[in-house]
Design a protein that fits this description.
alpha+beta; Outer membrane efflux proteins (OEP); 4-stranded antiparallel sheet; elongated; disordered N terminus
Length: 479
Amino acid sequence: MKQALGILASFAIVSACDVVGPNYSQPIVDVPQRFESGGSTELLTAATEQWWRRLNDPILNQLVARGGNQNLDVLTALERIRQADAALGRSGLNGQTDGSISAQVRTTGGDNGPTETNSGISANAAYVFDLYGGVRRNQEQAIANFEASQFDAGTVRLAYISDLVNSYIQARYFQEVAAITRQTITSRRATLRLVEDRRANSEATELEVQQARALLSAAEASLPFLTAQFEVNVFHMATLLGTTSSPLLAEMQHGARQPRPTGFTAVGLPADLVRNRPDVRFAERNLAATTAAIGVAEADLYPSLTINGNLTLGTQESWGFGPGFSVPVFNRGLLRANRNVAISTARQAELTWRNQIYIAIEEVQIAMTLCQNWSRQVTFLERASEQSNRVLTLSRESYEGGVITLTDVLDAERANSANRLAVADGVRNYVISWAQLQAATGKGWRIDGQVTADEIVRPVIRPDPLGTTPDPLEARLNQ
């Protein structure tokens, strides 16, 4: 009778207890209404936007797709998702129950005595009541960590894509510069032949011949460096793809134009970054996990109730069943310190999340202004290149007619070459800044088959559970 009353009392205690620790809700963050350089409409589908396809380069598209299945950093991040999923399986009911079944057969006896064999099966089980919600908070923490691992994988994938696209842009740039340099070498050889012909007819000096040769040698000297830089970027692309460099180098050596984007670039609003940027969402899920950890640590400060049972069948039979009640006394200082550490960790996680949002806004605004101004500059550079090419043609004609000196022709050669190289460099800088803008706005990070909650719907902004607003629970946690 007393045993039954004790069990009933235990269940009464369970029903009267509450879940300790703060209930998580996403904090409020103050962000600008719009970016300084533009953006006036929401960007809702950033995660699935394959922005690199707007560069209209089939080889690049194929490389990005290939690397999604081969990049070792992405594969490692996906494995972290599996690890977090396995950790989630240890929470909830699995974290409240324990038990095992064992069987044994034992034979005893001496040289002259009788032999005796004993056998039996024993089972034991235990169930821990979640009196103060520690198990539930632990499961909340595991769920948040699992979601965070998904966003971490998205961050890694976006970093891989950005790195691969950047290396591809650089490789094509050095190819373009090498092609311009070869054309410049051809042009300067033609100029040298012209000067040598005029020298043979005593219409030019030896000084002019040597000047033409020096300019040709300078152009020829730059080719090895350009080849090396092209190969360096291809080698890095091979590493990103998780493959050997020889096949990729052979594929890239066929050459292609410098990639340039087409179409309108949507940047959205600063508030969209809370949803679109995987690194920001990772920081928010980490904040949720550390907030739940406060409840786990807080629950350790209170008594725990366990139901234990055991049963033995065989030569000797026995059984036992009853509750166990424990109260932390001597280690209470340590448990309180653990709780305070959890509170501080959650506050740090919130500050990290807030800082990540402002970093994201900064990155978008920097990439946006660079992209816009590089685009304008490329327009002027292309105009200057067309004009300098016309000047070079007229200079050669005038030199052949004896109207101007060789110095004028060589100056026109230099200006034309410099302007063409400036166009290639301007296009490179523009496309790199454009790609950085796509990554900064959180486009294209979703991994095929990945399931994440709240991917399209804007998160609900709720009061800050770890801010300065007075909270009765906060006061209790600081005791």
